[in-house]
Design a protein that fits this description.
By secondary structure, this protein is mainly α. It has helices at residues 20-33, 38-49, 55-95, 117-130, and strands at residues 8-9, 15-16. A two-stranded antiparallel sheet has the order 1-2. Helix 3 (55-95) packs antiparallel against helix 4. It is elongated and about 80 Å long.
Length: 138
C-alpha cells in the first residue's frame, strides 16, 4: 500500500521530497479524518496517479461512510434510551428490595434494541449495487 512515492536520497542519505508531497500528505490526513481508510486511499491514489478520475467512486465511498455513521448514531441513541430505562427499572427494583438482600439487577438485563440495525442491510445493498466497495479506474 503506497500512498507516497519513494523519495530520492541526497548525498548524505537524507530523503528529498518533491514540493507536491506536502499537499498530498495534507489531502491524505483530511481523508483519514473523515473516515477513509489507508487501503481505500491507496486504491484511489493509484487510479489518480495512473491518470484516472475516481471521483464518483470517492463520492460513493463517502456516501457509504455517512450511511454507516448514521446507523451507528441510531444504535448509540437506542442504547442510551435503553440504559435510561434500565436505570429507572433498577431504581424501582431497589426501592422494593430490603436492605442487605440481593436485587439481582444483572439478571434483569435484556438485549438492547438496535434501531439503526434495519439500515445496515439497506446500506450494504446500496454499496453493492452502486459498486462502492472498490475503486475502479474511470
Amino acid at each position: 500500500m503506497k500512498l507516497l512515492a519513494a523519495p530520492r536520497r541526497s548525498n548524505g542519505n537524507y530523503r528529498l521530497y518533491a514540493p507536491t508531497v506536502l499537499e498530498r500528505v495534507r489531502t491524505i490526513r483530511r481523508a483519514l479524518a473523515v473516515g477513509f481508510t489507508l487501503p481505500e486511499l491507496a486504491r484511489i491514489l493509484k487510479v489518480r496517479d495512473a491518470g484516472g478520475a475516481p471521483c464518483r467512486q470517492v463520492k460513493g465511498l463517502l456516501e457509504s461512510k455517512l450511511v454507516d455513521l448514521e446507523v451507528r448514531i441510531a444504535d448509540l441513541a437506542a442504547m442510551r434510551d435503553h440504559l435510561r430505562q434500565v436505570l429507572k427499572d433498577w431504581d424501582n427494583q431497589l426501592n422494593g428490595t430490603p436492605d442487605g438482600k440481593p436485587a439481582l439487577l444483572l439478571e434483569t438485563l435484556q438485549e438492547p434494541p438496535r434501531k439503526g440495525h434495519q439500515h445496515e442491510d439497506i446500506a450494504h445493498t446500496r454499496r453493492a449495487r452502486d459498486g462502492h466497495s472498490r475503486v475502479r479506474p474511470g
